[in-house]
């Protein structure tokens, strides 16, 4: 081959590589200046959501799995006014009264599990079993399953949450473990309804076919959309579950599986699942080289995720001065004060241990129920707060003190 021809081939190859690597960045910049990716719009809701709680009626219930442990609730507003749209991945907050109107309500969050529709919202709830024989089963989930029939009324706060589909026109990897699949369903249904052809990988980890939800719906989507890459992972398949037909992978959703099945390119990752899955997958993705900004995740309960720290300045790496002294926490309204140390856990757990009256709901920084006035001092958060925190306040369920504090409790 002549050297001129060889030089031409090399030049073309380099040009192709430059385009391939630059394209995601170019597309990303485009999306920031408002260019639509062609999907169902994933922009911020237009109408202002309502303040406080709004009354809804359960217009339909649907059991979603063979085990009968997961049920969807379709919710229509009693006032009949159209529902504001939401961002796929967001959740609703409920005030539930299993003990009757005279008892303190339970506040719980449930993800919206379908794409936005003007006439109803949908949530999908898993019945929570007792964590130990001496403990009661989950109060809200069992109440919803057993005592909230079609026609029942529920008090609901407007859609909220920072875990939602981003507008970036990149291929999307959705990873849902167990009931953590619910926000992924909302994202998936939104992405596919737009018909843009944007590539979507769905990894759904569940024990077996009895526990998998929305089998028929997922199968129909898989058949209808060549741009959907469905990976059902059963960790404990039953004899009736056929590998390669009912499910694709034996085992959990883990990094080796992602590495074996994803092409080498840039994606937006969305992860929601049990604590063990989150604590291995999210740092695993970062170690694999995925930019932290391309990994979005949510935990349904208290989870402390160790992210890879950004390179710390040299001075910060010097050995510390030794164990930190306990912090003094003053509860101004109760006129009490006590010493906190790391073994005491979150400020919510600490306040409860001191028998200080404090409201709480999700215990994971989502519902905002425990929001408390921070009268003096500063707090750190063990995970990013999802609820919007008013100035001068903190969320004790995910906060620890940075020094002495005065709380308005
Ligand atoms: C943003 C967000 C979205 C969510 N989306 C969904 C969703 O789409 N679908 C869904 O099903 N769930 C979802 N959840 C979880 C949901 O909000 C509830 O946490 C879940 O339903 C359990 O609530 P519960 O009242 O039934 O259980 P709880 O009454 O809170 O009990 C939970 C567990 O604690 C145990 N327990 C009770 N007392 C004690 C004790 N003293 N010590 C130790 N353990 C005890 C119980 O036995 C039970 O196993 C979401 C949570 C968040 C934060």
Biggest sheet architecture: 6 strands, antiparallel
Q: Any idea what the radius of gyration is?
A: 24 Å
User: Which structural class best describes the helix and strand composition?
Assistant: alpha/beta
How many β-strands, per DSSP? 19
Shape summary:
globular
Biggest sheet strand order reads 4-3-6-1-2-5
* CATH structural architecture of the largest domain: 3-Layer(aba) Sandwich
String of helices and strands:
HEEEEEHEEHEHEEHEHEHEEHEEEEE
Ligand catalogue: flavin-adenine dinucleotide
User: What is the CATH topology classification name of the largest domain?
Assistant: Rossmann fold
Give the SSE map:
Elements lengths: L2 H30 L20 E11 L6 E8 L13 E6 L9 E6 L9 E6 L12 H9 L5 E8 L11 E6 L4 H12 L6 E7 L8 H10 L3 E7 L14 E2 L4 H7 L6 E5 L2 H14 L6 E4 L15 H4 L9 E5 L4 E5 L6 H7 L18 E5 L2 E3 L11 E2 L4 E3 L3 E3 L2
Parallel strand pairs: 7-8, 7-11, 8-9, 9-10, 11-12, 13-19
Antiparallel strand pairs: 1-2, 1-6, 2-5, 3-4, 3-6, 13-14, 15-17, 15-19, 16-18
Bound molecules: flavin-adenine dinucleotide.
GO molecular function: 2 iron, 2 sulfur cluster binding; flavin adenine dinucleotide binding; metal ion binding; oxidoreductase activity
InterPro entries: 2Fe-2S_ferredoxin-like_sf (IPR036010), 2Fe-2S_ferredoxin-type (IPR001041), Beta-grasp_dom_sf (IPR012675), Cbr1-like_FAD-bd_dom (IPR008333), FAD-bd_FR_type (IPR017927), Flavoprot_Pyr_Nucl_cyt_Rdtase (IPR001709), FNR_nucleotide-bd (IPR039261), MRET (IPR050415)
Pfam family, one: FAD_binding_6
């Amino acid at each position: 081959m002549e050297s001129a021809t060889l030089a031409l081939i090399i030049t073309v190859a380099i040009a192709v590589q430059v385009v391939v690597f630059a394209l995601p960045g170019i597309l990303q910049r485009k999306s920031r200046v408002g260019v639509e990716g062609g999907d169902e719009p994933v922009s911020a809701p237009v109408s202002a959501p309502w303040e406080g709680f709004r009354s809804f009626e359960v217009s339909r219930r649907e059991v979603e799995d063979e085990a009968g442990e997961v049920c969807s609730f379709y919710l229509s507003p009693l006032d009949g006014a159209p529902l504001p749209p939401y961002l796929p991945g967001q959740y609703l907050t409920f005030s539930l009264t299993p003990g009757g109107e005279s008892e303190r309500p339970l506040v719980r969050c449930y993800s919206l599990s379908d794409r936005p529709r003007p006439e109803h919202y949908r949530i999908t709830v898993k019945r929570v079993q007792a964590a130990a024989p001496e403990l009661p089963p989950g109060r809200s989930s069992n109440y919803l399953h057993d005592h909230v029939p079609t026609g029942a009324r529920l008090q609901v706060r407007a859609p909220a949450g920072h875990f939602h589909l981003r507008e970036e026109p990149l291929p999307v990897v959705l990873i849902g473990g167990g009931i953590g699949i619910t926000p992924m369903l909302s994202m998936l249904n939104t992405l596919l309804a737009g018909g843009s052809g944007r590539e979507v990988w769905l990894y759904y980890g569940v024990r077996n076919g009895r526990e998998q939800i929305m089998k028929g719906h997922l199968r129909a989507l898989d058949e209808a959309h060549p741009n959907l890459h469905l990976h059902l992972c059963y960790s404990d398949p039953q004899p009736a579950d056929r590998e390669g037909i009912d499910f694709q992978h034996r085992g959990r959703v883990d990094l080796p599986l992602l590495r074996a099945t994803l092409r080498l390119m840039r994606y937006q990752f969305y992860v929601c699942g049990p604590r063990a899955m989150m604590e291995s997958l999210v740092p695993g993705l970062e170690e694999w080289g995925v930019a932290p900004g391309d990994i979005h995740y949510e935990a349904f309960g208290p989870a402390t995720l160790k992210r890879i720290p950004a390179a710390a300045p040299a001075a910060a790496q010097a050995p510390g001065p030794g164990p930190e002294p306990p912090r003094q926490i003053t509860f101004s309204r109760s006129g009490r004060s006590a010493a906190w140390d790391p073994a005491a856990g979150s400020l919510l757990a600490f306040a409860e241990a001191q028998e200080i009256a404090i409201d709480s709901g999700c215990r994971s920084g989502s519902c905002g129920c425990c929001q408390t006035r921070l009268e003096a001092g500063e707090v750190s958060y063990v995970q990013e707060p999802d609820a919007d925190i008013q100035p001068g306040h903190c969320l004790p369920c995910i906060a620890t003190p940075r020094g002495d504090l005065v709380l308005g409790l």
